[in-house]
Amino acid sequence: MSNEEYLKYLQNYNDNAKLFQIHTNSLILNYNGTFKMPLTHTTLNELNPNIFNLDPRETFQIIYVLELLYKEKLSEGEINFVTNYTQKYLSLNDSVLENDSNDKDRVWCLSIPIYKAYDPMFIETPTAITINKVINNHSEIIESDKGMQKRLVLENKNIPTIFDEEDNLPINMEKAGFISLLFIVGAVIATVSYITYYIIR
């Protein structure tokens, strides 16, 4: 089935698909403007049809990044597009992981070209390299943030920690020193009271 035939088939039950058309092997989107790209490598019937349930611009972007994976050279504008697309995907994915939002299907669809970039066939292409670079940078930022959070809750290692035998809870030695001081003061008061008692008597 050709791309044009498959798109016409989709249009029978998907309203978003009706915003697309194919003319001379180019995919055209008429939605808040007209967007056009050649379909050189992408076969629409091999893609998950759920991508046409997204905002039509995101559907177009997914297919565009898939096409860019085949390019041996990217323009600066194309590199920026791939970078922004990957950052948007990562941001949305983080949001879904943190909040368990209703965007899981959207994230899954947006991830299609991201995961395809790790296919051995594409891994050395400029698009895959750009995607990988953005993901690595994102991971480093997350790990750095986690490290900062851990450092904020670490105890001062110069102050050893002992365990309270009764409750089996860690007690900071600074607090333990204060407790020891109370014992010493109490002992002194008890001793003085004892001596005073016998003197006065």
Give an account of the 3D structure.
The chain has helices at residues 3-10, 56-68, 76-99, 104-116, 126-153, 173-200, and strands at 20-23, 26-30, 34-38, 161-163, 170-172. The protein is mainly α. The protein has a 3-stranded antiparallel sheet. The radius of gyration is 32 Å and the shape is globular.
What's the quick description here?
This protein is mainly α. The chain has helices spanning 3-10, 56-68, 76-99, 104-116, 126-153, 173-200, and strands at residues 20-23, 26-30, 34-38, 161-163, 170-172.
Main sheet strand line-up: 1-2-3
Helical residue percent band: 55-70%
Cα shape: globular
Content of β-strand: 5-15%
Uncertain segments are 150-185, 190-201
Q: What structural class results from the helix and strand content?
A: mainly alpha
Distance between the termini: 114 Å
Number of helices: 6
Per DSSP E runs of 2 or more residues, the count of β-strands stands at 5
Mean pLDDT: 80
- Using only CA atoms, what is the Rg? 32 Å
N-to-C SSE string, H for helix and E for strand: HEEEHHHHEEH
Largest sheet properties: 3 strands, antiparallel
